[in-house]
Amino acid sequence: MGIKKGKSDGAKITKAVIAVAGSGTRFLPATKTMPKEMLPIVDKPIIQLVVEELVSAGITDIILVTRSDKRALEDHFDHNTMLEHELKANGKNHYCNEITRVSEMANFIYIRQKGPYGNGTPVLCSANLVKDEPFVYVWGDDLVKARESFTGSMIKDYERNGHLMIGVQQVPKEVVNLYGIVKLRPGTNEIEDIIEKPGIDEAPSQLADFGRMILDGEIIEILKETPLGKGKELWVVDAIREYIRRGGIFLAKEVHDGEWLTTGDPLNYLKAVLKYAVARDDIGPELREFLASLQ
């Protein structure tokens, strides 16, 4: 299959796929009955912050690739008429308006994940819904705390240059072995290769990739042909590498005026909670005083 280059055809990106079928084993027993993506960042679950970033970028259709024990995700983005009625009756209109807003932010579509393990599988599960359109692909537990929607800035870049891309952020050298590390073509933001968890002294850069991507039908077609990789899982990065090998241009989009925050393990989750909490006007000042008192 030939790869198109510089293929900006004016297509608007209105769809996003969110991978939320993981087990959250590092948070057990808390995630035995509650999806990891529903863990709160103060008073909003992780997944809501992800969706808000997408919606503020102009996304209207959000496809969540989920599984049978993730019904709480579906319920969160649905109306709860009993609760809405109760809040109105008790004069708690602010809370009523907020939960109503959540259910009306976008058109939510739910797909049960089928296929091999791996982060490439949600893309294939969504293929019939995204068709040949460009779309945003997101991990349900990755946050980007920024003044402007990071997804929005990616979409603006795509509309300008027509190239697929993945979010990246500089990480300390001592942790490059924990992430997929991007190798760029000299003097550009074009990706030459992505090395999964390289040795600290072997990493080509300190740019780690994370769960914000713009993909399209060409990546889907490559994924259909991609053999299972590390851990006998289907990896989207393997399809990206093949896309590049075939001559496609795939860009790295670095976070500016913001920060990628992973919530994939308890320590990083707690760091994310604190970073969001101390930035709030209502609880931030008092929380900062409390944290200072612990030192």
What gap, in angstroms, lies between the N and C termini?
Answer: 59 Å
Please tell me how large the radius of gyration is.
Answer: 20 Å
Uncertain residue segments: none
CATH-defined architecture? Alpha-Beta Complex
- The fold-level CATH name is Spore Coat Polysaccharide Biosynthesis Protein SpsA, Chain A
Report the helical percentage: 25-40%
The oligomerization state is: single chain
The secondary-structure element order is: EEEHEHHHEHHEEHEEEEHHEEHH
Determine the mean pLDDT.
92
Tally of DSSP helical segments = 11
Describe the structure.
By secondary structure, the chain is an alpha/beta fold. The protein has a single domain (15-293), classed as Spore Coat Polysaccharide Biosynthesis Protein SpsA, Chain A (Alpha-Beta Complex), CATH 3.90.550. It is built from eleven helices and 13 strands. The strands form four sheets. The protein has a seven-stranded mixed β-sheet, with helices on both faces. Strand 2 (40-41) and strand 3 form a beta hairpin. The mean pLDDT is 92.
What features would you highlight for this structure?
295 residues, alpha/beta, Spore Coat Polysaccharide Biosynthesis Protein SpsA, Chain A, seven-stranded mixed beta sheet
